[in-house]
Amino acid sequence: MPRVPVHTVSDAPAGSQATLTALGQQVGKVINIHAQMAHSPTLLELYATTERLLQEHSTLDVAVRRAIHLAVAHANDCEYCQAAYTGAARAAGHSEEDTKDIRRGGLPGDQKLTALLDVAREIADNRGYVEDTTWKTAVEAGWSEQEILEAYAEVVRTTMTNYFTHLVGTELDLPPAPDLD
Questions:
Q1: 7, 25, 37, 173: which has the fewest Cβ within 10 Å?
Q2: CA atoms within 13 A on the CB side of 50
Q3: Sequence-separated (6 or more) residues with CB below 8 Å from residue 86
Q4: How is the chain split into domains, by residue range?
Q5: Hey, CA dihedral for 144, 141, 105, 83, is it positive or negative?
């Protein structure tokens, strides 16, 4: 049972209406996570601003960003975000099987991306701590220190959404992520 209302644009607090409208246009509809974040205009704006900054300034391409989101959502056991980020990863060019592999631990045919996802998962699993060998493997795979720090920013952004859905009990209004066989 959700702990906060699932708002529509018209019944959201006035400070959330423009941002909720914009997010709905980006996604194609107002989804429950945004509709619940709208209960706090500050929270919704924090999320939207973080997402906008990462979209506009990250050197990571959208397919890499979406893979990080999906890997972290799986690490954080967020059913809602795994569903959302599976759809986003598919829209960014990953196949359904890729999305399963990302959730399982990496892409067998892409060791470079897998190395960065290992960093992201360790950040999520270990409260920010990453083993030297994991960092070194990512650098040796071709990731710059700047890109690794941007991956960290993606982990923070994703953890915010994961923990939010856990906190408020966001109900799934998207196709679920496929089962891992």
A1: 25
A2: 17
A3: 70, 96, 99, 175, 177, 178
A4: 14-57, 62-161
A5: positive
Predicted confidence (pLDDT) per residue in 120-176, tens digit: 999 999 999 999 999 999 999 999 999 999 999 999 999 999 999 999 999 999 999
State both tokens at 116: 């960065």
Whole-angstrom distance, CA of residue 56 vs CA of residue 64: 15
One-letter amino acid for residue 109 of the chain: G
As a whole number of angstroms, the distance between CA 128 and CA 115 comes to 16
Give the closest residue to 123 by CA, choosing from 163, 158, 160, 152. 152
Instruction: Give backbone dihedrals phi and psi of 61, rounded to 5 degrees, phi first.
Output: -75, 165
Convert the pLDDT of each residue in 60-71 to its tens digit: 999 999 999 999
Cα 164 to chain centroid, rounded: 12
| Superfamily of 62-161 according to CATH | AhpD-like (1.20.1290.10)
Tokens representing 121 are: 């998962």
The model carries a pTM of 0.96
Tell me the C-alpha distance between 181 and 165, whole Å: 25
Q: Which residues contact 152 (CB under 8 A, 6 or more apart)?
A: 119, 120, 123, 128
What type of residue sits at position 66? Answer: R
| In contact, 164 and 86? CB cutoff 8 Å | no
Which of 158, 159, 106 has its CA nearest to residue 137? 106
